[in-house]
Amino acid sequence: MRHARRRVVRRVTRLAAVGGLLLGGAMVTTAVASEPPAPSIGVPFTAPPATGEGTDLMSRLGNSRTAGSWVDSAGRPVVAVTDEKAAAEVQRAGARAKMVGHSMSDLKSATAALRSAPRVSGTSWALDYKSNQVVVRGDSTVSASDWSRMTEVAEGIGSFVRMERTEGTFTTRINGAQPILSTAGRCSAGFNVTDGTSDFILTAGHCGPDGSVWFADDGGRSQVGTSLKGSFPGDDYSLVKYDGGRAGKGADIVAVGDGKGVRITGVADAEVGQKIFRSGSTSGLREGEVTALNATVNYPEGTVTGLIETNVCAEPGDSGGPMFADGVALGVTSGGSGDCRAGGTTFFQPVTKALTELGVKLIVAQSEGGTGAAPAPSASPGAASPGSTAPITGTDVSTLLSRLTDPRNVGPGMLVIAGSLVALVATRWIRAEQDRKAYRQHYSATWG
């Protein structure tokens, strides 16, 4: 087995550093005119977490007897329960039970009360399953009077609502200060999807309204596609339809920098405690963990609900970029607070809901190295085969550099293209080497 892994590693070649295209920040890859050989699909040394089982148990036992589930450090599902009989059922199923004082019904009732209160921009709340609390956060823009008013609402709900102030501000991650590569601003691409007739880029809805035109250069000479079917606020997703209609070969690969990519093999819902990776055109590849689900964020532009909360960092320009684990697509970057120097909180739009609402399917890797549409969203990320790293190759790199490089943001690129169009490359060095090491360790079987 070890010799076989070495052979896989030797097959993974490196691509020279290239400059960055900003449209979707280059998170999904499609092949250029020359077609690379199909990379081998490797299996990482660490098994994917046993997600999905906790969700199934919660569904079976009901909201009055459970209060969420998560994955512990060993990858074992843990279910919060409110009575001994429910705990026994969880244990018989092979999961771990934790007794709590408030049910999922209580937690959801609390969030409903928060939603009904006057909206305060710069606040968020999410269900913290591990502490059996609803956590309300206020950023630096929330005034003392507004925070006091929200605290009164929380106290009226109950002691299981925890109030926290956070540094920075909750913002969407579009960046108007950088070269604008669309009619709305600069973002990152998420995943390639299809409706069976045409292919699209799935990205964040706040990146631009329907009709926004995306370009592969700041001069507006190379048009990539047009936004449509967006939803923001409320949700945070949209599609960019490729002008050529097709994403091309390699549409199942997500770029992670250093000429590397991860093959996407499926789509699923995230689990609290799950280790995840995020890639974006500004800050590159970053690792973190899912900290909460069903988060609500009151951005200045509007309120978005049903988000995935994580402790991974992100920065302006990373909006729309992909979040994944073990080759399984989980979310696209919405917004958050902080940055990749000090750390922060980042929220993601779940991919499963976006696909359902938009009526499209994820373009995923097949076992023989081809691509196809993903089946209906699954509740279990562990059900899909793990993703592997693969080289991202293409035609004349020097030509791409001359057309796409932003001189203010040159770094090892994440090459992405759309048939004969070039689409999507990243813009700067991945600034935290520890994140790359973590990724390399996580996918060590196929890291070149």
Report on the architecture of this protein.
By secondary structure, this protein is of the alpha+beta class. It contains eight helices and 27 strands. The chain has helices at 2-11, 53-61, 84-92, 104-116, 144-157, 351-358, 397-404, 433-442, and strands at residues 28-29, 66-71, 77-81, 96-99, 123-128, 133-138, 161-165, 171-172, 191-194, 199-203, 213-215, 223-231, 237-242, 253-257, 260-263, 266-267, 275-280, 284-299, 302-310, 322-325, 328-339, 343-350, 361-365, 371-373, 389-391, 417-418, 421-422. The chain has a seven-stranded antiparallel β-sheet. A hairpin with a 3-residue loop joins β21 (328-339) and β22 (343-350). The model is unreliable at 1-50, 174-180, 378-433 and 439-448 (pLDDT under 50).
Layout of helices and strands:
Blueprint: H1 2-11, E1 28-29, H2 53-61, E2 66-71, E3 77-81, H3 84-92, E4 96-99, H4 104-116, E5 123-128, E6 133-138, H5 144-157, E7 161-165, E8 171-172, E9 191-194, E10 199-203, E11 213-215, E12 223-231, E13 237-242, E14 253-257, E15 260-263, E16 266-267, E17 275-280, E18 284-299, E19 302-310, E20 322-325, E21 328-339, E22 343-350, H6 351-358, E23 361-365, E24 371-373, E25 389-391, H7 397-404, E26 417-418, E27 421-422, H8 433-442
Parallel strand pairs: 3-4, 6-7, 16-21
Antiparallel strand pairs: 1-14, 2-3, 5-6, 5-18, 8-21, 9-10, 9-23, 10-13, 11-12, 12-13, 14-15, 15-25, 17-18, 17-20, 18-19, 19-22, 20-21, 21-22, 23-24, 26-27
